[in-house]
Amino acid sequence: TKRWPSAEGGALTEAELNEAAALLAAGETVAFPTETVYGLGADARSTEAVEQVFRAKGRPSDNPLIVHIAGMEQLRGLVRPLGEAERRLAERFWPGPLTLVLRAVPGAVSPRVTAGLDTVAVRMPDHEVALRLIRAAGCPVAAPSANRSGRPSPTAARHVQEDLGGRIAGIVDGGPTGVGLESTVVECAGPDSVRILRPGGVTPEQLRAAGFEVLLEVDGAGGHADPAQAFEEGMGASPGGASGEGAPARDAAAKLAEAPPTAPASAAAVPAAAPRSPGMKYAHYAPRGEMRLIAGDRERVRAAVQAAADEARGRGRRVGILAYEETTAAYRADIVLACGSLAAPETAAQSLYAVLREFDERGAEVIWAEGCPTDGIGLALMNRLSKAAGGRVEHID
Ligand code: TXA
Ligand code: MG
Question: pTM here?
Answer without folding.
Answer: 0.87
